[in-house]
């Protein structure tokens, strides 16, 4: 990862005016600086750059793995809406962090990168050759290829973009080809202007001047939110919101044994303190407002030892429809499980089973990576149901869905079980026909082999 030349000054800006002159002294300054950063969340809002020059390969990989793991744990505990962009990590010379793996193996960096994406962490990785982990490339949504003429890279990039190999060596300076995961499915050519600074050492004075022009250094690290005074009843309501995220207000008051006047007063107080807020969710017949925790509310509960749900949440609308569809399936005798694992650290929103019939449900509100969810479900041995919050979203992704998948919207709730059962029956029939075809083929093959054997025996007897 590239860094401005005055990185040492930036690292020690709260330690003092002295700039370290040696590696050992730099390490001591970093250690002093780290004592002022007690939590990873203090670094995340800042534009931080790590210069790895001078470190060995193992040290480079360790530092990057540490950052990935720290951010993953931070996102998991924050309980923010999943698959909504929160932060971006940029890796230059990505082969140093994500080395090419042996076939069938998943390295620790690739696994962490795959998991952290679920929590709104974007990764931009750049490398000069296709010598990085295949899992990193496979899980990258946007792929950008500049000019390349090495035969192995040309073949790989052409298959990745689904274009003819002859075009890649012909790309001029300032041109590239990209492929997007959505909106536009064909690769296209784009241009970019020449960079004003290239292959040039930038003096520290220039970097400092540019840094000052952009606002200069901050005198203090961003502080944590000031402690919020929370009463016992407010705490009870916050815990109820965390454990029952889609419950209605009246149900909450009944569960807590509060009069509506008392409950409304407490509700208004936690909203005023920015511990909770209302989220408007579209339903089959209209809209409802659901009281949800803010990031400050989740931080408060975590700091006070409240055990929060570990399931990956996707916002009020996502959770409302997951609970609604789960209720429909359970009333029809299905056993439903949320966040059901399907391998490689991935999960589906809902998995329901009744007897031998299995249904997998993915709920799309427009905030998640729909293409990744489609690929995740494509080979699952179950009836696949994609529930789209709007018809426009469904129509946009209809053609990309697996051929046997069901695409439903809010107006199709009464068809969820019927359509799934019909699809399941069709799946059974399809498998039955396929088995019958294999049986006929096997019988024909055996008959052919018997014929060959008898003909060969007769021929050998004739020669004797």
Structure write-up:
The chain is an alpha/beta fold and 464 residues long. It has 4 domains: 37-140, Rossmann fold; 154-193, no CATH class; 232-310, Arc Repressor Mutant, subunit A; 311-464, Rossmann fold. It is 42% helix and 15% strand. The protein is built from 15 helices and 12 strands. Strands 8-9-10-11-12 form a 5-stranded mixed sheet, sandwiched between helices. A 3-stranded antiparallel sheet has the order 3-4-5, covered by helices on one side. The protein has a two-stranded parallel sheet with strand order 1-2. A hairpin with a 2-residue loop joins strand 8 (335-343) and strand 9. The longest helix is centred in the C-terminal third of the chain and has 48 residues, at 416-463. The relative contact order is 0.07.
Low-confidence stretches: 1-21, 29-38, 219-224, 425-429
Give me the count of strands.
12
Strand/helix succession: HHHEHEHEHEEHHHHEEHHEEEHEHEH
Q: Which percent range describes the beta-strand content?
A: 15-25%
Which architecture of the largest domain would the CATH scheme give at its second level? 3-Layer(aba) Sandwich
Q: What's the N-to-C terminus distance? A: 79 Å
Can you give the helix content as a percent range? 40-55%
Report mean pLDDT, rounded to a whole number.
78
Count of individual domains: 4
Figure out the total of helices: 15
Shape: flat
Radius of gyration: 29 Å
Under CATH, the topology of the largest domain can be stated as Rossmann fold
